[in-house]
UniProtKB/TrEMBL annotation:
Keywords: Adaptive immunity, Immunity, Immunoglobulin domain, Receptor, Signal, T cell receptor. It holds the Pfam family V-set. GO terms for cellular component: T cell receptor complex. Gene3D superfamilies: Immunoglobulins. GO terms for biological process: adaptive immune response. This is Ig-like domain-containing protein. Residues 2-105 form the Ig-like domain. It comes from Colobus angolensis palliatus (Peters' Angolan colobus).
Length: 111
């Protein structure tokens, strides 16, 4: 079984601020971890994902996330917020074992 917890339901930042959206996961196996973004009136878009290899993952629009197994975390960061980053961000986990469901959780970023 697996789950994700996003520790902040809403994050407000000013333009130019550092963005931090926290996500912790629980998984019985080696996890695949994902961040999705949903801009207003648009569908979900994959921002970045971790499956294996280097633990620092760079995504689109300057976002990155680091897989920290010891902390069971996959926090999303960006060095400088832009007004266009205002959206809902979803952290998701899926076990690498076939045919197991994943879990998706969300929080809101306001700029």
């Amino acid at each position: 079984a697996q789950s994700v917890t996003q520790l902040d339901s809403q994050v407000s930042v000013s333009e130019g601020d550092i963005v931090l959206l926290r996500c912790n996961y629980s998984s019985s196996f080696s996890p695949n971890l994902f961040w999705y973004v949903q801009y207003p009136n648009q569908g979900l878009q994959l921002l970045l994902k971790y499956t294996s290899g280097p633990t620092l993952v760079k995504g689109i629009n300057g976002f990155e996330a680091e897989f920290k197994k010891s902390e069971t975390s996959f926090h999303l960061t960006k060095a400088s917020a832009h007004v266009s980053d205002a959206a809902e961000y979803f952290c998701a986990v899926s076990d690498t074992v076939p045919e197991t469901a994943g879990e998706l959780n969300t929080n809101l970023l306001r700029c």
